[in-house]
Automatic annotation (TrEMBL):
It comes from the Bacteria. Belongs to the GTP-binding SRP family. SRP54 subfamily. The gene is ffh. Pfam families: SRP54 (PF00448), SRP54_N (PF02881), SRP_SPB (PF02978). Involved in targeting and insertion of nascent membrane proteins into the cytoplasmic membrane. Binds to the hydrophobic signal sequence of the ribosome-nascent chain (RNC) as it emerges from the ribosomes. The SRP-RNC complex is then targeted to the cytoplasmic membrane where it interacts with the SRP receptor FtsY. It is found in: Cytoplasm. One of its GO terms (biological process) is SRP-dependent cotranslational protein targeting to membrane. It is an enzyme of class 3 (hydrolase). Composed of three domains: the N-terminal N domain, which is responsible for interactions with the ribosome, the central G domain, which binds GTP, and the C-terminal M domain, which binds the RNA and the signal sequence of the RNC. This is Signal recognition particle protein. One of its GO terms (cellular component) is signal recognition particle.
Length: 440
Protein backbone atom coordinates (compact mmCIF):
# COMPACT_ATOMS: atom_id res chain seq x y z
CA UNK A 1 0.00 0.00 0.00
CA UNK A 2 1.13 3.53 -0.70
CA UNK A 3 3.20 5.28 1.98
CA UNK A 4 3.16 2.29 4.29
CA UNK A 5 6.89 2.37 5.00
CA UNK A 6 6.91 6.11 5.62
CA UNK A 7 3.88 5.97 7.92
CA UNK A 8 5.43 3.21 9.98
CA UNK A 9 8.75 4.99 10.38
CA UNK A 10 7.09 8.25 11.34
CA UNK A 11 4.93 6.46 13.90
CA UNK A 12 8.05 4.86 15.39
CA UNK A 13 9.71 8.26 15.73
CA UNK A 14 6.64 9.71 17.46
CA UNK A 15 6.23 6.71 19.75
CA UNK A 16 9.50 7.54 21.43
CA UNK A 17 8.19 11.02 22.14
CA UNK A 18 5.00 9.70 23.66
CA UNK A 19 6.85 8.17 26.58
CA UNK A 20 8.12 11.57 27.62
CA UNK A 21 6.16 13.77 29.94
CA UNK A 22 7.76 16.98 28.85
CA UNK A 23 9.33 17.84 25.55
CA UNK A 24 12.87 19.13 25.46
CA UNK A 25 14.98 20.36 22.56
CA UNK A 26 17.00 17.13 22.61
CA UNK A 27 13.88 14.96 22.29
CA UNK A 28 12.66 16.97 19.34
CA UNK A 29 16.02 16.80 17.60
CA UNK A 30 16.29 13.03 18.10
CA UNK A 31 12.80 12.50 16.72
CA UNK A 32 13.48 14.82 13.80
CA UNK A 33 16.62 12.93 12.85
CA UNK A 34 14.45 9.86 12.45
CA UNK A 35 11.81 11.80 10.54
CA UNK A 36 14.50 13.02 8.16
CA UNK A 37 15.77 9.49 7.54
CA UNK A 38 12.23 8.26 6.98
CA UNK A 39 11.66 11.01 4.40
CA UNK A 40 14.91 10.24 2.59
CA UNK A 41 14.05 6.56 2.50
CA UNK A 42 10.67 7.50 1.04
CA UNK A 43 12.62 9.13 -1.80
CA UNK A 44 11.92 12.70 -0.76
CA UNK A 45 14.36 15.19 -2.25
CA UNK A 46 17.16 15.70 0.30
CA UNK A 47 16.90 19.49 0.31
CA UNK A 48 13.17 19.29 0.82
CA UNK A 49 13.66 16.81 3.68
CA UNK A 50 16.19 19.07 5.37
CA UNK A 51 14.06 22.19 5.06
CA UNK A 52 11.05 20.29 6.31
CA UNK A 53 12.80 18.98 9.41
CA UNK A 54 14.29 22.39 10.17
CA UNK A 55 10.89 24.01 9.96
CA UNK A 56 9.30 21.45 12.27
CA UNK A 57 12.16 21.65 14.78
CA UNK A 58 11.99 25.41 14.93
CA UNK A 59 8.28 25.33 15.63
CA UNK A 60 8.35 22.38 18.04
CA UNK A 61 11.18 23.63 20.25
CA UNK A 62 9.84 26.34 22.43
CA UNK A 63 6.30 26.13 21.05
CA UNK A 64 3.58 27.10 23.44
CA UNK A 65 2.32 23.70 24.50
CA UNK A 66 -1.42 23.24 24.19
CA UNK A 67 -2.57 21.86 27.45
CA UNK A 68 -5.15 19.61 25.85
CA UNK A 69 -2.40 17.81 23.90
CA UNK A 70 0.49 15.59 24.96
CA UNK A 71 3.97 16.61 23.74
CA UNK A 72 3.88 13.86 21.12
CA UNK A 73 0.49 14.97 19.86
CA UNK A 74 1.85 18.48 19.69
CA UNK A 75 4.74 17.37 17.47
CA UNK A 76 2.43 15.26 15.31
CA UNK A 77 0.23 18.32 14.88
CA UNK A 78 3.17 20.44 13.72
CA UNK A 79 4.44 17.72 11.37
CA UNK A 80 0.94 17.40 9.95
CA UNK A 81 0.65 21.14 9.35
CA UNK A 82 4.09 21.33 7.77
CA UNK A 83 3.30 18.36 5.50
CA UNK A 84 0.18 20.15 4.31
CA UNK A 85 2.08 23.33 3.60
CA UNK A 86 4.85 21.34 1.85
CA UNK A 87 2.28 19.99 -0.57
CA UNK A 88 0.82 23.39 -1.30
CA UNK A 89 -1.64 24.02 1.53
CA UNK A 90 -4.96 24.48 -0.17
CA UNK A 91 -6.46 22.29 -2.86
CA UNK A 92 -5.54 23.82 -6.22
CA UNK A 93 -8.34 23.90 -8.76
CA UNK A 94 -8.34 24.12 -12.53
CA UNK A 95 -8.30 27.59 -13.95
CA UNK A 96 -11.26 27.67 -16.32
CA UNK A 97 -11.69 31.14 -17.85
CA UNK A 98 -15.19 32.46 -18.38
CA UNK A 99 -14.67 32.78 -22.13
CA UNK A 100 -14.64 29.33 -23.82
CA UNK A 101 -12.98 27.28 -24.97
CA UNK A 102 -10.62 26.55 -22.12
CA UNK A 103 -7.55 24.71 -23.37
CA UNK A 104 -5.90 22.10 -21.18
CA UNK A 105 -2.64 20.72 -22.49
CA UNK A 106 -1.65 17.35 -21.05
CA UNK A 107 2.02 16.47 -21.29
CA UNK A 108 4.46 14.02 -19.78
CA UNK A 109 6.68 11.05 -20.47
CA UNK A 110 5.40 7.95 -22.21
CA UNK A 111 3.66 5.58 -19.84
CA UNK A 112 3.06 8.19 -17.15
CA UNK A 113 -0.70 7.93 -17.68
CA UNK A 114 -1.30 10.89 -20.00
CA UNK A 115 -3.93 9.33 -22.26
CA UNK A 116 -5.74 7.64 -19.39
CA UNK A 117 -5.82 10.88 -17.42
CA UNK A 118 -6.96 12.94 -20.42
CA UNK A 119 -9.96 10.59 -20.49
CA UNK A 120 -10.45 10.75 -16.70
CA UNK A 121 -10.37 14.53 -16.76
CA UNK A 122 -12.80 14.61 -19.70
CA UNK A 123 -15.20 12.38 -17.81
CA UNK A 124 -14.92 14.44 -14.63
CA UNK A 125 -15.49 17.75 -16.42
CA UNK A 126 -18.42 16.29 -18.31
CA UNK A 127 -19.98 15.19 -15.03
CA UNK A 128 -19.63 18.81 -13.87
CA UNK A 129 -21.75 20.01 -16.78
CA UNK A 130 -18.96 20.90 -19.24
CA UNK A 131 -18.78 19.75 -22.86
CA UNK A 132 -15.16 18.68 -23.24
CA UNK A 133 -13.38 17.62 -26.42
CA UNK A 134 -10.41 15.25 -26.40
CA UNK A 135 -7.76 15.90 -29.03
CA UNK A 136 -5.24 13.35 -30.30
CA UNK A 137 -1.97 15.25 -30.67
CA UNK A 138 0.21 12.18 -30.19
CA UNK A 139 0.72 11.47 -33.87
CA UNK A 140 3.74 9.20 -33.68
CA UNK A 141 2.09 6.06 -32.49
CA UNK A 142 -1.09 5.06 -34.35
CA UNK A 143 -1.98 3.04 -31.25
CA UNK A 144 -2.08 6.26 -29.22
CA UNK A 145 -4.90 7.71 -31.34
CA UNK A 146 -6.85 4.48 -31.07
CA UNK A 147 -6.29 4.42 -27.31
CA UNK A 148 -7.66 7.93 -26.93
CA UNK A 149 -10.70 6.99 -29.01
CA UNK A 150 -11.38 4.00 -26.76
CA UNK A 151 -10.98 6.13 -23.64
CA UNK A 152 -13.20 8.87 -25.13
CA UNK A 153 -15.92 6.39 -25.90
CA UNK A 154 -15.81 4.99 -22.37
CA UNK A 155 -15.96 8.50 -20.94
CA UNK A 156 -18.71 9.61 -23.33
CA UNK A 157 -16.47 12.45 -24.55
CA UNK A 158 -15.94 13.15 -28.28
CA UNK A 159 -12.43 12.80 -29.73
CA UNK A 160 -10.95 15.02 -32.45
CA UNK A 161 -8.19 13.47 -34.54
CA UNK A 162 -6.53 14.07 -37.89
CA UNK A 163 -4.45 10.94 -38.10
CA UNK A 164 -0.69 11.41 -38.19
CA UNK A 165 -0.57 15.07 -39.24
CA UNK A 166 1.23 18.02 -37.66
CA UNK A 167 0.39 18.24 -33.94
CA UNK A 168 0.45 22.05 -33.97
CA UNK A 169 -2.05 22.17 -36.84
CA UNK A 170 -4.20 19.52 -35.17
CA UNK A 171 -4.32 21.58 -31.96
CA UNK A 172 -5.31 24.73 -33.86
CA UNK A 173 -7.99 22.95 -35.89
CA UNK A 174 -9.32 21.33 -32.74
CA UNK A 175 -9.97 24.77 -31.28
CA UNK A 176 -12.02 25.74 -34.31
CA UNK A 177 -13.86 22.43 -34.12
CA UNK A 178 -14.65 23.05 -30.47
CA UNK A 179 -16.06 26.51 -31.22
CA UNK A 180 -18.22 25.11 -33.99
CA UNK A 181 -19.51 22.24 -31.88
CA UNK A 182 -20.05 24.03 -28.60
CA UNK A 183 -17.23 22.33 -26.69
CA UNK A 184 -16.19 24.62 -23.83
CA UNK A 185 -13.09 22.65 -22.83
CA UNK A 186 -10.40 21.24 -25.12
CA UNK A 187 -8.05 18.62 -23.70
CA UNK A 188 -4.91 18.04 -25.76
CA UNK A 189 -3.31 14.62 -25.36
CA UNK A 190 0.24 15.32 -26.53
CA UNK A 191 3.04 12.93 -27.45
CA UNK A 192 5.37 11.52 -24.84
CA UNK A 193 8.82 9.99 -25.06
CA UNK A 194 10.67 7.62 -22.83
CA UNK A 195 13.02 10.43 -21.87
CA UNK A 196 12.96 14.18 -22.22
CA UNK A 197 14.39 15.14 -25.61
CA UNK A 198 14.80 18.39 -27.45
CA UNK A 199 12.52 17.53 -30.36
CA UNK A 200 9.65 16.70 -28.02
CA UNK A 201 10.13 19.88 -26.02
CA UNK A 202 10.27 21.98 -29.18
CA UNK A 203 7.02 20.42 -30.35
CA UNK A 204 5.28 21.05 -27.05
CA UNK A 205 6.54 24.64 -27.00
CA UNK A 206 5.16 25.12 -30.53
CA UNK A 207 1.73 23.79 -29.49
CA UNK A 208 1.80 26.05 -26.48
CA UNK A 209 2.66 29.09 -28.60
CA UNK A 210 -0.03 28.24 -31.14
CA UNK A 211 -2.99 27.72 -28.82
CA UNK A 212 -2.06 29.52 -25.57
CA UNK A 213 -3.33 26.87 -23.12
CA UNK A 214 -5.08 27.94 -19.92
CA UNK A 215 -3.60 24.94 -18.15
CA UNK A 216 -0.48 22.93 -18.90
CA UNK A 217 -0.76 19.85 -16.76
CA UNK A 218 2.24 17.62 -16.40
CA UNK A 219 1.36 13.98 -15.82
CA UNK A 220 3.91 12.19 -13.63
CA UNK A 221 4.04 8.65 -12.35
CA UNK A 222 4.33 8.65 -8.54
CA UNK A 223 5.97 5.22 -8.60
CA UNK A 224 9.07 6.75 -10.18
CA UNK A 225 9.71 8.94 -7.12
CA UNK A 226 12.63 11.35 -7.50
CA UNK A 227 12.79 10.73 -11.26
CA UNK A 228 9.25 12.09 -11.53
CA UNK A 229 10.33 15.18 -9.66
CA UNK A 230 13.31 15.84 -11.92
CA UNK A 231 11.08 15.34 -14.95
CA UNK A 232 8.73 17.92 -13.45
CA UNK A 233 11.61 20.31 -12.92
CA UNK A 234 12.72 20.03 -16.57
CA UNK A 235 9.23 20.34 -18.01
CA UNK A 236 8.57 23.33 -15.83
CA UNK A 237 11.75 25.07 -16.92
CA UNK A 238 11.00 24.55 -20.58
CA UNK A 239 7.23 24.89 -20.68
CA UNK A 240 6.23 26.61 -17.50
CA UNK A 241 3.58 24.14 -16.46
CA UNK A 242 0.57 25.25 -14.40
CA UNK A 243 0.10 22.10 -12.40
CA UNK A 244 0.77 18.40 -11.97
CA UNK A 245 -1.33 15.27 -12.23
CA UNK A 246 0.22 12.65 -9.97
CA UNK A 247 -0.73 9.18 -11.19
CA UNK A 248 -0.61 5.63 -9.85
CA UNK A 249 -1.02 6.65 -6.23
CA UNK A 250 -2.87 3.36 -5.77
CA UNK A 251 0.41 1.53 -6.28
CA UNK A 252 3.25 0.85 -3.90
CA UNK A 253 4.64 4.36 -3.91
CA UNK A 254 7.01 5.62 -1.28
CA UNK A 255 5.66 9.16 -1.27
CA UNK A 256 8.74 11.03 -2.49
CA UNK A 257 7.07 12.54 -5.55
CA UNK A 258 3.93 13.62 -3.72
CA UNK A 259 6.01 15.31 -1.06
CA UNK A 260 8.70 16.97 -3.17
CA UNK A 261 7.07 18.12 -6.38
CA UNK A 262 5.51 21.34 -5.09
CA UNK A 263 8.61 22.33 -3.14
CA UNK A 264 10.93 21.68 -6.11
CA UNK A 265 8.87 23.13 -8.96
CA UNK A 266 6.66 25.60 -7.14
CA UNK A 267 3.72 24.15 -9.05
CA UNK A 268 0.82 22.47 -7.29
CA UNK A 269 -0.42 18.94 -7.73
CA UNK A 270 -3.95 19.48 -9.00
CA UNK A 271 -5.15 15.89 -9.38
CA UNK A 272 -4.17 12.44 -8.32
CA UNK A 273 -4.80 9.23 -10.22
CA UNK A 274 -5.70 6.31 -8.03
CA UNK A 275 -6.37 3.47 -10.44
CA UNK A 276 -6.78 2.35 -14.04
CA UNK A 277 -10.51 3.02 -14.26
CA UNK A 278 -11.82 6.31 -15.60
CA UNK A 279 -13.42 7.25 -12.29
CA UNK A 280 -10.14 6.90 -10.42
CA UNK A 281 -9.31 10.59 -10.41
CA UNK A 282 -9.44 12.90 -7.42
CA UNK A 283 -8.60 16.52 -6.78
CA UNK A 284 -5.37 16.54 -4.78
CA UNK A 285 -6.08 17.54 -1.17
CA UNK A 286 -2.81 18.30 0.65
CA UNK A 287 -4.48 17.87 4.05
CA UNK A 288 -5.88 14.44 3.25
CA UNK A 289 -2.59 13.37 1.74
CA UNK A 290 -0.73 14.54 4.85
CA UNK A 291 -3.06 12.51 7.05
CA UNK A 292 -2.58 9.50 4.83
CA UNK A 293 1.19 9.85 4.97
CA UNK A 294 1.13 10.16 8.74
CA UNK A 295 -1.14 7.13 8.83
CA UNK A 296 -2.84 8.48 11.93
CA UNK A 297 -6.12 9.74 10.61
CA UNK A 298 -7.94 9.09 13.84
CA UNK A 299 -5.36 10.67 16.13
CA UNK A 300 -5.26 13.73 13.90
CA UNK A 301 -9.02 14.06 13.90
CA UNK A 302 -8.94 13.82 17.67
CA UNK A 303 -6.26 16.49 17.97
CA UNK A 304 -8.15 18.80 15.66
CA UNK A 305 -11.50 18.30 17.33
CA UNK A 306 -10.12 18.52 20.85
CA UNK A 307 -8.49 21.76 19.91
CA UNK A 308 -11.48 23.41 18.31
CA UNK A 309 -14.06 22.15 20.76
CA UNK A 310 -12.17 22.59 23.98
CA UNK A 311 -11.17 26.17 24.06
CA UNK A 312 -8.15 26.42 26.34
CA UNK A 313 -9.34 29.42 28.32
CA UNK A 314 -12.79 28.04 28.84
CA UNK A 315 -11.25 24.74 29.86
CA UNK A 316 -9.12 26.45 32.50
CA UNK A 317 -12.15 28.28 33.84
CA UNK A 318 -14.00 24.96 34.10
CA UNK A 319 -11.13 23.34 35.94
CA UNK A 320 -10.99 26.25 38.31
CA UNK A 321 -14.69 25.85 39.04
CA UNK A 322 -14.22 22.15 39.48
CA UNK A 323 -11.42 22.69 41.94
CA UNK A 324 -13.36 25.25 43.90
CA UNK A 325 -16.37 22.99 43.92
CA UNK A 326 -18.37 25.51 41.92
CA UNK A 327 -19.07 23.31 38.93
CA UNK A 328 -22.85 23.33 38.50
CA UNK A 329 -25.39 21.82 36.13
CA UNK A 330 -25.08 24.75 33.75
CA UNK A 331 -21.35 23.96 33.37
CA UNK A 332 -22.21 20.34 32.88
CA UNK A 333 -24.48 21.36 30.04
CA UNK A 334 -21.66 23.31 28.38
CA UNK A 335 -19.36 20.30 28.67
CA UNK A 336 -22.02 17.99 27.31
CA UNK A 337 -22.53 20.23 24.31
CA UNK A 338 -18.81 20.41 23.63
CA UNK A 339 -18.59 16.65 23.73
CA UNK A 340 -21.64 16.30 21.55
CA UNK A 341 -20.04 18.58 18.96
CA UNK A 342 -17.13 16.16 18.78
CA UNK A 343 -19.42 13.36 17.64
CA UNK A 344 -21.14 10.40 19.23
CA UNK A 345 -19.62 8.87 22.35
CA UNK A 346 -18.59 5.84 20.31
CA UNK A 347 -16.90 8.10 17.78
CA UNK A 348 -15.11 10.12 20.44
CA UNK A 349 -13.85 7.01 22.20
CA UNK A 350 -12.76 5.41 18.94
CA UNK A 351 -10.59 8.46 18.23
CA UNK A 352 -8.73 8.33 21.53
CA UNK A 353 -5.08 7.45 21.01
CA UNK A 354 -3.15 4.65 22.64
CA UNK A 355 -5.70 1.92 22.08
CA UNK A 356 -8.08 3.33 24.71
CA UNK A 357 -10.79 3.16 22.09
CA UNK A 358 -10.31 -0.57 21.66
CA UNK A 359 -10.46 -1.18 25.39
CA UNK A 360 -13.67 0.75 25.74
CA UNK A 361 -15.39 -0.39 22.59
CA UNK A 362 -17.41 -3.00 24.47
CA UNK A 363 -18.48 -0.49 27.12
CA UNK A 364 -22.01 0.75 27.23
CA UNK A 365 -21.76 4.10 25.53
CA UNK A 366 -25.26 5.30 25.05
CA UNK A 367 -25.70 8.63 23.30
CA UNK A 368 -29.37 8.66 24.22
CA UNK A 369 -28.46 8.88 27.89
CA UNK A 370 -26.32 11.88 27.16
CA UNK A 371 -29.16 13.49 25.23
CA UNK A 372 -31.55 12.70 28.07
CA UNK A 373 -29.30 14.37 30.61
CA UNK A 374 -29.11 17.38 28.34
CA UNK A 375 -32.90 17.57 27.98
CA UNK A 376 -33.37 17.37 31.75
CA UNK A 377 -30.88 20.18 32.45
CA UNK A 378 -32.46 22.31 29.73
CA UNK A 379 -35.84 21.98 31.43
CA UNK A 380 -34.48 23.49 34.67
CA UNK A 381 -34.42 27.19 35.45
CA UNK A 382 -31.00 28.91 35.66
CA UNK A 383 -31.37 29.06 39.46
CA UNK A 384 -32.03 25.34 39.63
CA UNK A 385 -29.01 24.60 37.46
CA UNK A 386 -26.82 26.61 39.82
CA UNK A 387 -28.42 25.14 42.98
CA UNK A 388 -30.01 21.76 42.26
CA UNK A 389 -31.00 21.51 45.95
CA UNK A 390 -33.81 23.98 45.17
CA UNK A 391 -35.61 21.35 43.10
CA UNK A 392 -38.64 20.07 45.03
CA UNK A 393 -40.89 17.11 44.08
CA UNK A 394 -43.37 19.23 42.15
CA UNK A 395 -40.56 20.84 40.14
CA UNK A 396 -39.11 17.38 39.49
CA UNK A 397 -42.45 16.34 37.94
CA UNK A 398 -42.48 19.48 35.80
CA UNK A 399 -38.87 18.97 34.68
CA UNK A 400 -39.57 15.33 33.81
CA UNK A 401 -42.64 16.33 31.80
CA UNK A 402 -40.73 19.16 30.10
CA UNK A 403 -37.84 16.91 29.08
CA UNK A 404 -39.93 13.91 28.10
CA UNK A 405 -38.34 11.79 30.85
CA UNK A 406 -39.49 10.22 34.10
CA UNK A 407 -39.08 11.54 37.64
CA UNK A 408 -36.68 8.63 38.27
CA UNK A 409 -34.46 9.91 35.49
CA UNK A 410 -34.38 13.38 37.03
CA UNK A 411 -33.59 11.85 40.42
CA UNK A 412 -30.81 9.75 38.95
CA UNK A 413 -29.17 12.80 37.39
CA UNK A 414 -29.41 14.77 40.62
CA UNK A 415 -27.91 11.85 42.53
CA UNK A 416 -25.06 11.58 40.01
CA UNK A 417 -24.42 15.29 40.29
CA UNK A 418 -24.30 14.99 44.07
CA UNK A 419 -21.73 12.21 43.84
CA UNK A 420 -19.72 14.33 41.45
CA UNK A 421 -19.85 17.26 43.86
CA UNK A 422 -18.40 15.03 46.56
CA UNK A 423 -15.63 14.04 44.20
CA UNK A 424 -15.00 17.69 43.46
CA UNK A 425 -14.46 18.30 47.16
CA UNK A 426 -11.73 15.68 47.14
CA UNK A 427 -10.07 17.32 44.17
CA UNK A 428 -10.28 20.71 45.78
CA UNK A 429 -8.14 19.49 48.67
CA UNK A 430 -4.50 20.61 48.40
CA UNK A 431 -2.18 18.02 46.96
CA UNK A 432 -4.98 16.34 45.05
CA UNK A 433 -4.88 18.82 42.24
CA UNK A 434 -4.74 17.26 38.82
CA UNK A 435 -5.28 18.33 35.26
CA UNK A 436 -8.45 16.85 33.88
CA UNK A 437 -11.27 17.41 31.56
CA UNK A 438 -13.99 17.86 34.19
CA UNK A 439 -16.87 15.95 32.74
CA UNK A 440 -14.89 13.36 30.81
P1 LIG B 1 0.66 7.54 -21.56
O1 LIG B 1 1.69 6.80 -22.35
O2 LIG B 1 1.28 8.61 -20.74
O3 LIG B 1 -0.48 8.03 -22.36
O4 LIG B 1 0.12 6.50 -20.47
P2 LIG B 1 -1.21 5.64 -20.47
O5 LIG B 1 -2.38 6.51 -20.22
O6 LIG B 1 -1.25 4.78 -21.67
O7 LIG B 1 -0.98 4.76 -19.17
C1 LIG B 1 0.07 3.82 -19.05
C2 LIG B 1 -0.36 2.65 -18.19
O8 LIG B 1 -0.56 3.08 -16.85
C3 LIG B 1 -1.68 2.04 -18.61
O9 LIG B 1 -1.58 0.65 -18.50
C4 LIG B 1 -2.69 2.60 -17.62
O10 LIG B 1 -3.77 1.72 -17.43
C5 LIG B 1 -1.86 2.72 -16.39
N1 LIG B 1 -2.32 3.78 -15.49
C6 LIG B 1 -2.55 5.08 -15.78
N2 LIG B 1 -2.94 5.75 -14.69
C7 LIG B 1 -2.97 4.87 -13.66
C8 LIG B 1 -3.30 4.99 -12.25
O11 LIG B 1 -3.63 6.06 -11.71
N3 LIG B 1 -3.19 3.86 -11.52
C9 LIG B 1 -2.82 2.67 -12.08
N4 LIG B 1 -2.73 1.60 -11.30
N5 LIG B 1 -2.50 2.54 -13.39
C10 LIG B 1 -2.58 3.63 -14.17
Amino acid sequence: MAFEGLSEKLSAAFKKLKQKGKLGEKDVKTAMREVRLALLEADVNYKVAKQFVDAVTERAVGAAVFESLTPAQQVIKIVHEELISLMGGEVSRLHIPSKPPCVIMMCGLQGSGKTTHSGKLGKLLKSQGHRPLLVACDVYRPAAIKQLQVVGEQAGVPVFEMGQGDPVEIAKKALGHAKDHGNDIVILDTAGRLHIDEALMAELAAIKAAVGPDEILLVIDSMTGQDAVSVAESFNQLLEITGVVLTKLDGDTRGGAALSVKAVTGKPIKFSGTGEKLDDLEPFYPDRMASRILGMGDVLTFIEKAQTQFDEKQQKAMEEKFRKNKFDLEDMLVQLDQMRNMGSLQQIVSMLPGGIGNKLSGADLDDRQMDQVRAIICSMTPEERAKPKLINPSRKRRIAAGSGTRVEDVNRLLKQFETMSKLMKQFSRPGKRRRMMPFM
